[in-house]
Amino acid sequence: MNRTDVPSGVRSTPWRELASRHALLPLRIFLGVTFVYAGLDKLTTPGFFAAEGAASIGEQMRGVRDTAAIPALVDLALKAPAGFGYAIALGELLVGLGVLTGLLTRIAAAGGALISLSLWLTVSWAVTPYYYGNDLVYLMAWLPLVLAGAPYWSLDALIRSRRSRRTA
Fold first, then answer.
1. Has this prediction a pTM greater than 0.85?
2. CA end-to-end distance (rounded Å), the chain
3. H-helix or E-strand containing 116?
4. Is 152 helix (H, G, I), strand (E, B) or coil?
């Protein structure tokens, strides 16, 4: 941000400029750590990938099937619960690592938004009032990263910087 970008009457300070540039960093860290943790948690929970059982993905899907906004999504997951469970767990892990490192950040954030959207439409759709369900909040949290990417402290920025040096 340079001096001409500051609205009239607002004094630009180095702190304000620094905060503005790095405003999405806490969101990246939170979402990245949360999704890495969620993926690892699924991968290390005994019985999670089973079709039946107390902590299984199959049992969780059957439990939300009748209250989901799109029951067909749940039915699809129930055709291959282990495959669906692995897809979600690995997706969460890759999304989290992508956002934490800032590598292909917009694509990783879009993946996180799609995971959150699918969980909102299935698992937390029936939560009332709607703001008690966290999947909608995660979906909304991903959108700034889809739009802005990771312009600072990221592998994307490092790659961009090296490319611009080569072409200069």
1. yes
2. 22
3. helix 105-122
4. coil
